[in-house]
């Protein structure tokens, strides 16, 4: 990257899942530089710090394209909370001239609708739904889990009580699932949920590529909503109570294994704007 003394960015939070957003339509950060740049700027205390980096790029057909990186520098196909932040960022920065837009991700085209601080994004599709998997965790323990890809891969483990959800070792068990041979080589995110009632689920998520629990996960919320509806435990729209306390809402129609018109809705807030000094990303 030719040395740009300072790189303007906006820090945003999608229900506690936090991101650094950069308008990279000038191509300053080259594709091959993305992973290391992301790893450096997402370090808490040593740089801006975030769960992920979002680079907005030019696109010849739709409003814009994006590159999404987890804080470990891995590029992910999609990010639900990040998509909501990217849509609001595009409106605030005049990258689009309408509150409705379409942008390109590795998981396909995302339609977004910005209404003030709240954003709805339409997820292209769910695939690979697999219910009631007996997952061997170690020689003495198996867990009944479920799987779906909601833009990125997600395992969902349903716990019986709120207390169990409070006490579960999200990082220890989450890491075991994330690196489980069943899901290699791509790995998976791991969600632990408790079904509060037919309209709401409390969720905690261990995120692949952050390698820790995050305060919210958009695609994880979609996965949990889809799986609990498919199991007959909830009815859409489903509210997801995230670890940060914010509520994410997932809308869709479900009929005999088919999910239609999948939307994720929730707040996407600006925390601050800044300019990144070159000396901390060399
Ligand atoms: N860490 C995820 C990508 C971000 C997902 C999450 N932040 C969301 O809001 O969907 C992965 O690598 O699969």
TrEMBL record:
UniProt family annotation: Belongs to the diaminopimelate epimerase family.
Record protein name field: Diaminopimelate epimerase
Oligomeric and partner information: Homodimer.
Record keywords: Amino-acid biosynthesis, Cytoplasm, Isomerase, Lysine biosynthesis
PROSITE patterns, per the entry: DAP_EPIMERASE
PANTHER family: DIAMINOPIMELATE EPIMERASE (PTHR31689:SF0), DIAMINOPIMELATE EPIMERASE, CHLOROPLASTIC (PTHR31689)
GO BP annotations, alphabetical order: lysine biosynthetic process via diaminopimelate
């Amino acid at each position: 990257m030719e040395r740009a003394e300072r790189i303007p960015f906006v820090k945003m939070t999608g229900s506690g899942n936090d991101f650094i957003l950069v308008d990279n339509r000038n191509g300053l950060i080259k594709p091959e530089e993305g992973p290391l740049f992301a790893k450096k700027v997402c370090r808490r205390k040593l740089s801006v710090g975030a769960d992920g980096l979002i680079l907005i790029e030019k696109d010849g057909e739709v409003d814009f394209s994006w590159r999404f990186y987890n804080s470990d520098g891995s590029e992910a196909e999609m990010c639900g909370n990040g998509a909501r932040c990217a849509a609001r960022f595009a409106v605030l920065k005049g990258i689009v001239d309408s509150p409705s837009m379409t942008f390109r991700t590795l998981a396909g085209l995302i339609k977004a609708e910005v209404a003030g601080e709240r954003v709805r994004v339409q997820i292209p599709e769910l695939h690979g739904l697999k219910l009631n998997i007996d997952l061997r965790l170690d020689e003495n323990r198996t867990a009944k889990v479920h799987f779906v890809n909601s833009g990125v891969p997600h395992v969902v483990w349903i716990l019986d009580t709120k207390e169990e959800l409070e006490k579960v070792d999200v990082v220890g068990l989450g890491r075991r699932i994330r690196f489980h041979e069943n899901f290699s080589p791509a790995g998976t995110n791991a969600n632990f949920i408790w079904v509060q009632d037919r309209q709401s689920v409390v969720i905690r998520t261990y995120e692949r590529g952050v390698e820790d629990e995050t305060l919210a996960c958009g695609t994880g919320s979609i996965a949990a909503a889809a799986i609990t509806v498919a199991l007959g435990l909830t009815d859409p729209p489903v509210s997801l109570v995230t670890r940060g306390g914010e509520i994410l809402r997932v809308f869709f129609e479900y009929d005999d294994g088919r999910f239609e018109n999948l939307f994720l809705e929730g707040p996407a807030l600006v925390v601050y704007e800044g300019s990144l000094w070159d000396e901390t990303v060399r």
